[in-house]
Design brief:
Layout: E1 3-10, E2 13-20, E3 23-27, H1 28-35, H2 40-48, H3 51-64, H4 70-79, H5 89-96, E4 101-104, E5 110-114, H6 115-125, H7 127-171, H8 179-198, H9 202-208, H10 222-240, H11 245-263, H12 267-276
Antiparallel strand pairs: 1-2, 2-3, 3-5, 4-5
Length: 277
């Protein structure tokens, strides 16, 4: 079971978020602390004993949980609203086999709920807080989605570069060379691609961009990254065919010019680039 924990800030309150098996759970404990720092657990229990809450949770579980226990749920629903009725998150989970709420003891524990349920609890605490919570949660997901897209494109370039460097090792590296010689060959092949696509070597780029961190490829746009991935595969093919570096550079440059003209006019690429801005 994969887990990831991070947080967002909502109206000066830190709200924890856990992703378990790709499902987001928001901390009800943190939301309750926004209203009452000392008695957050009491607030959650008071919300749970509300009849409208029980009805909402029951419908949510029926829609999302095939193992939900309806008989036990009906027992809670009949008691909901009575002065004598009390219900804790752990009791709800244990009796109904609910999956929308999770509760863990300890310093780093607390009560978390699926975002649908957490938003409902936030509305019970404060309608204003709910709206800000939704806004900050959406901002987090948009940021993560943009980062995921960038990571995919960067990893694509890295995978293709691995194919490219394997071809260099098999065809250009003589026997019994030093590590320095191997690195020099890799660097020169990387610059073949840099010159073909960017019109300059890595060293030339660093000389012209002394205030920037990283390398020339870190500042490439989506079109350039797509083109770079294609050039890496083609360069590996040209190396296997025994073409000289001069011949490869001329071919790769002509291909780069042609592909960049096509990619810069591509609607899908333009939409991706707009998402990076």
């Amino acid at each position: 079971m994969s887990k990831k924990t991070r947080s967002i800030t909502v109206l000066d309150s830190t709200i924890g978020i856990r992703t378990i098996d790709e499902t987001d759970f928001i901390s009800l404990t943190d939301i309750a602390r926004h209203r009452n720092q000392q008695h957050s657990d009491d607030l959650i229990r008071n919300w749970l004993r509300n009849r409208n809450t029980i009805e909402f949770l029951g419908i949510w579980e029926r829609l999302n949980n095939p193992d939900f226990k309806p008989v036990e749920f009906d027992g809670f629903r009949r008691q909901a609203g009575l002065n004598s009725f009390t219900l804790t998150p752990k009791q709800w989970i244990a009796h109904t086999n609910a999956i929308g709420i999770i509760s863990k003891p300890g310093r780093y524990g607390g009560t978390f709920a699926h975002k649908d349920i957490a938003f409902e609890f936030a509305a019970w605490i404060s309608v204003e807080f709910k709206l800000y919570l939704i806004k900050e949660f959406q901002r987090l997901k948009e940021t993560e989605q943009a980062q995921l897209g960038w990571d995919i494109r960067r990893n694509l370039a890295k995978i293709n570069y691995r194919i490219h460097t394997d071809a260099v090792k098999e065809n250009l590296i003589p026997q019994q060379v030093t590590k320095a010689q191997i690195n020099a060959i890799y660097a020169s092949e990387a610059d073949v691609l840099n010159v073909a696509l960017f019109g300059m070597t890595a060293k030339e780029w660093r000389g012209s961009n002394r205030g920037k961190k990283g390398n020339i490829r870190d500042y490439a746009n989506v079109s350039q990254l797509v083109c770079l991935s294609n050039l890496e595969n083609l360069n590996a093919l040209f190396i296997n065919e025994g073409l000289s570096q001069r011949e490869r550079l001329m071919k790769l440059n002509a291909i780069a010019i042609h592909q960049m003209r096509l990619l810069t006019d591509d609607t899908g690429i333009k939409q991706l680039e707009a998402g990076d801005e």
